[in-house]
Predict the 3D structure of the following.
Amino acid sequence: MKRSNLMRKKLTALLTSAILTTTFLTGCGNGAQTSGEANQDTQTSEVSEALQDTQSAEGESSIGQSGEETGAVTYPVETQEKLTVMMRLDPNLTTLGYTSYEGTPFGRELEAKTGIDIEWIQPADNNALLLALAGGDLPDIVIMNYDTYTGGINQLAKDGIAIPITSYLESCAPDYLAVLDSNDDYLKGVKNADKEIYSFAFLRGDISTLSWRGVIARKDWLDDLNMEVPNTIDEFYDMLIAFRDEKGAVIPFSTRNDWVPLLLTDGLITSAFGLPTAEEYQIEGTYHYGAYEDVYKDCLAFLNKLYAEGLLDVNWQTTDETTTTANLLTGISGVHLTTSGRFESIMGSAKEENFDIVAIPSLTAEEGDTPMYNLISRWVDSDQNAFITESCENVELAMKFLNYAYSEEGNILYNFGVEGESYEMQDGTPLFTDLIMNNPDGVAVTTIMSAYIMSYKSGPLVQDKLYYDQRMAMPQQQESAVTWGSTDVLDYKIQTISIPEEFASEYVNLWSDINTYISEMRAKFITGEESLDNFTAYQENLQKMGMDRIIEIKQMALDEYNSR
Amino acid sequence: MKKNSSNKNNKSGESLGVRVKKDLKRNYSAYLLVLPVLVFYGVFAYKPMYGAIIAFKDFSPRLGILDSPWTDLYGLKHFLSFFQSYYFGRILKNTLVISFSTLIFSFPAPIILALLLNEVRNRRFKKAVQTISYLPHFISLVVVCSLITMFTSHNGMIVDFLSVFGFETNMDLLNNKKLFVPIYVISDIWQKIGWDSIIYIAALAGIDQEQYEAARIDGANKWKQMLHVTLPGIAGTIILLFILRIGQIMNVGHEKIILLYNDGILETADVISSFVYRRGILESNWSFSAAVGLFNSSINFLLVILANKISKKFSGTGLW
């Protein structure tokens, strides 16, 4: 299929090359004119595609040289063709009784607005999707988390699941191109190591949508005790002591299993010891891994102290979220690590009258220091990116379909759903209706959202600030984004870098054991099962296991990213 | 299958082909009966076996099994990477420890239950015990594991019970690496004892009652009867199942392990299959998983042959 497609393209290119030489100069103007018309017929798009081909043959990327008016795509597109789209099924849709987007208000509206008939293929989960990719025929479009595919985008491209779309962007996805051009990190993030763009990526719309997880404390307790929200590590410690002694919190700090390490990996306490995070970070282009640094020992020592003094839940590795949330609600604990998305349910189930929570910033050593790090989503997320496969026969159509999400109108559909059903326009701003925010049948917000919008999780779209602000409407939530997010994280954060293909398998083989070792030793150091005197031995062991090589490989990837 | 010994008496001079043809004609109904079984094994057991070659290849799903390239190091890359792993010694040890513990404690349990039930004369009580002990078998493993987590938590059933004897702790038992294997084995017994005893109860029902009568006449008491009549009566079944069980030594399923373990107890809880789960499945590293699977199966295969030989030598019975 691909072969004949290529042949056809080449033929078209040959045949039109003569015409092109004469129309080349006027091409731009023509494009702008025809774009206004409702029907952009196949011939024009083929010509412009051939034009793209010649351009890329000359080694030029179309990115960066896009004119102001390269031609918008008009929706609905007039076509008889169908597209097959594969994406893992959102469990929330299953809850609502759907087996795919087919029949959901979102799916219906999407087909109506784009004019393209979509056949959804939705395996139950990501593993099922990977298996489907491994075995069966490829759909036209695959929407998936490329990090879960061994070898990432490079391998997807090699396996024919992702084709480079750079040359189509200008003609068929001008809106996507415009969005990418609007933020330097978008453009860097979607470009692969080979300078090609493969995906319609999940983009975060605003810096305020990036911080969504951190430490919270009982505000009413702090007020009772006349304490300020702690900024430094000492104040934090004093707060835990006060909660235990004055408020009777048996386990002052409690959070669900495997979330305690987030104190280190999200950089919530590490700034106080001069370490941005226990995971990877960069200092002016140099790659570092926190758990391999000397000061990491001090961070572990602090957690070990909390553990030994009973300030940290002794069962932090086994307790589940239900229990720890209950701990917070019933006064067994007063400090919790959670996501801002959970604030509603926490506040909603509070029994005590004055119960209130407040976000605690990443801790520092001295009052007035700016914390170095906090959890921050990448501008360009690897989750649920859309790829066009090589068995797609009408790439232009697929491009136009995916481009829709990044257009003004499409952005509203992907973020707010259907006008009159899931949102109403008020003074030019879309506002969610009660159907979503206060469902009369008592359906949870995220569950009902799954049938109307895609942005509440992830997908090939821009997660809009307007959406996010409404989703996180509580004052505590809005405040938390600021409290948690006021750090220098962008200086240290490593965005989506891609490991050069030739080192990919070496990296995976080394990393798997090292990763296990780091998390295992972290647990042992915190509980004191392994004495911190052995920290040097731990570092030496990491070195023996190939940590230096890991850093070397990652440094190459980082250099490549920074040079994009 | 093609050779048929019943035809050996045929007049010599006829070639094999002719004899087979004749036999096919005469016994076609029997061949027809066996055909679906052969097809089943061919399609579902033997044909997929060629897929094991991906253990020696860098398998890429899109290229397919045959077109994927062979690995470096003469196709042994994934095996070496498994053996050279920092954790190889530990996961092998843990796998064997858990396997042998279940073999020693969990294998005899249903036999004992069956023998005890066999002595119970009250039919209603017997049925009730059987039904109750079957139940855990029908619960999904995920649910079983969350039950285990609840039972073993610091305010769960087990600690509550032990506190009667003065045992106090504020730690969930699953945080203690020394307790992982006992928890694993005991819950394994709880989950399987009823269901696995069915086959023994069936075997017990097959013992000729006259033998008991004869034993009683010879003056054997209950204990002697069990020792000299009942046990020999089901010995064949026990040996059969034991050999089959030996063939599972290297397989400790990853599901239960990963549902129960945490970073703090990896030292005793991490086994080959959970290691492969992290490195092979989560990273979609099919070839690596296949290599480890092949390694495990080879060892299991050798163990079964060995166990069968030993059993034949000492007891005269075996799988084949």
